[in-house]
Amino acid sequence: MLSAKRNQTLVALGLSTLMLCLAAAFAEPLLLLAALAGYVFVGMRYGTRWRIERGRLLSQWRRQAEKPADEAADAVAVPVGREESDDLVGEILRRRRHALLARPQLAATLGPAHVAAALAALHESMAVVPQGRVLLDGNAPSLTDTPAEDRQMNDVVEVWVDAVLIDRYPVSNEDYQHFVDDGGYEQMELWATEILPALLDFVDRTGLPGPRYWRDGRHPAGLARHPVVGICWYEAAAYARWVGKRLPSDAEWVKAGCWPVQFGGEGIVQRDYPWGEAMDRSRAHLWSGESHGPVQIDQYAEGASVGGVHQLIGNVWEWTSSNFGTADMHLIAEGANRAGHAARLKSLRGGAFDTYFDSQATCHFQSGDQSIARKHNIGFRCALSLCDVVGCESMTTNREHHPMECETTAAAGDEELAAVGSREGG
Amino acid sequence: MVRYVNVELDSVRLAQYAQQVPCYICEGANTFDAELCRHCYAPMALAHQARSQKVRPQLMAVIGSSGVGKTVYLGMLLDMMSRQTNSWQVLARGAFSITLQQSTVAALAGCRFPEKTPNDPDRWNWVHCQVRPPRKRHAREIIVPDVAGESILEEIDHPHTYPGIRALLSRCSAAMVMVDAPRLGTDGGEQDFFAMKVLTYLSELIEDPRHGWHNRPVAVVFSKADQCESAFDSPAAYAAERATGLWRHCRERFKQHQFFACSVTGACVSRLTPDGRRVKAPLRIEPRGIVEPFVWLNSRMKG
Predict the structure, then answer these.
(1) Which A residues 39-68 touch B at CB under 8 Å?
(2) Were A421 and a residue from A209, A245, A404, B3 both cysteine, which residue would form a disulfide, CB within 3.0 to 4.6 Å?
């Protein structure tokens, strides 16, 4: 659509220039007038294009604000004919949005074959992280004056995590392209209300909606299987909603990597790395002096966790749904503008291809960045609570049996590190 | 029981004291057992190394205002280059040359910044290292000091306050001028003005136009560029846009100059300590553009 408009504009520009030349050559006032009209047309077109786009987005935003929240889901659930239903399900599966179909509310309206296909796709792309307790560092190293070697076990917080599915691989450019092609940046119901005014800034190098390092709304050629980078926390969260998932919380992410084991109600033993206790640089893509960017999401297969989750360590940092630091820390991101001062920092996990120190590429190390940061080495993966999958609805936690803080779907958005229960217990 | 001990004859000691050892930086006379030069406070180990190994190390200056990141940059550079195997390599000479690398790396690995370099010249860090280009047998000896930013400013504003800095900048084969990229264009142009003062000072330091700074390589490095990504896209364009005065100074006064952008951290945060102080802390270490200016300067240094 945009390229057709651009072609019209270029044709008008060319014709106007030709007429101007002819007018100059033959001193013909009519041709001169025609050329001027052409230039005015081009000027208006360019000048108004951005205003039109902006107006369209704002009107969509207003419409969506008046819509009920679950209208989008209802739209998918409208009964359709068998062939149309096949097409629709096929299209959803092709775009890797199978988690939507596996939700109990939608699965009830589908045939068994469609549900089976969705569950098979889910099983192939996501790994189960069983429920249980996990140990998290109470404070990131950047937020404490105590050297790492002097920190005690009481700096560690014990957190309960419900069973969850987590993507086996980070989200790739190929996956994210479906979201961009489907107009994900224009579907206001996917975005948090507070970020809507900033949505027009989430553009690629050519000014079109998309990750920062893309061009013309397309990912760089040859990088389809590379993790998507240059997306902020809000873009990651919007994509996750579009595919019917969410971002994993910090505790879920750490549990997927550390794979904690509890011995008869006693202590918890968990790993520092998905593959064991010691750093092995052959299993993760980290700084080596020669690495200049991320690699494909399926490389470094030997670095997978016990549950089969790949590239938790290295390649790209991953956004989680949790905040970095606690609310009373008065953290200010360096380089943040006046608006950025108020923005909370979001948690990052796992290290990236340019992470220099081994100690900053463990499952326990927490970093953070501004929620609107769109950086070259930050990507994400998605999660899905097991209770949101058809057939697993009953797999919820009885909190009474777990007095420590619970990591649940509801809590996955925020503030899980408060560890209130843990402090009360301790 | 008879014990044999070595006792130096007073005459020998007096003879040694009579022969003065010139400082490698300021060429001032010192006694043979002096640890630091009594004129400029540079370590006398530099002079002893140069004499014993029969090599004449070249000097490289890293200049910038206070807090621009000179110590972090140098420490990181040394650590990165000493870990590389297939590219440019650095080998430290003398234990004192490893101190800077050690303190910087220990701090950054623990998500802290190293202590600020003190103004006292006797507490500055000096690095003497061997730099070997890839696939070449010939190595170059280089001395790089880590000088406090306030002292540089003091010397520029009031020449001869720090004789060591003046002597160093006169003898340097190359210079790296560091500019705080996020602060460029803010704070009343402090960064821009400081860099211009440094460049003016350098260009007027040596009167002989053949050996002056006009022909020596100067790298202008925008530090902390992780906070302004556009500096990485095109450092020269960033300079032209955000530091026009600096950009024009470079174009008109230095035949060999190049703009670079670098960052050591991926993100930083300011936080309040329990006693109410605000401290900066790195959230992760992701060096970018660290080696490039050093390699560029080395490839253009004569000798």
Answers:
(1) none
(2) A404
CA trace torsion A33, A35, A41, A43 (10° rounding): -110
Distance from CA of B70 to the nearest CA of A (A): 18
Structure tokens given for A56: 């369209």
State whether ipTM is beyond 0.90: no
The whole-angstrom distance between B32's CA and the closest CA on chain A is 41
- Residues 368..407 of A with a Cβ closer than 8 Å to B: which? 368-370, 373, 375, 377
User: Distance (Å, rounded) from C-alpha B67 to C-alpha B180?
Assistant: 8
Give the list of residues 6+ apart from residue B42 with CB closer than 8 angstroms, or none.
B23, B24, B25, B26, B36, B121, B126, B145, B164, B168
pLDDT of residue A334: 62
Measured between alpha carbons, how far is B67 from B45 in angstroms, rounded to an integer? 28
Tokens found for residue B65: 């205002």
Interface test with A, best of B269, B272, B285, B291 (most A CBs within 10 A): B269
Mean pLDDT, residues B151-161: 88
C-beta atoms of A334 and B110 within 8 A: no
Q: How far apart are CA A389 and CA A395, in angstroms?
A: 10
Tell me the whole-structure pTM to 2 decimals: 0.80
Q: Do B285 and A356 touch (CB under 8 A)?
A: yes
Residue B138's pLDDT band (cuts 50, 70, 90): confident
Cβ atoms of residues B294 and B58 within 8 Å: no
In angstroms, the Cα distances linking A228 to A34, A205, A282, A360, B250 are 48, 15, 23, 21, 39
Please calculate the CA angle A418-A419-A421 and round it to the nearest 5 degrees.
135
DSSP string covering A348-360:
EES--TT---GGG
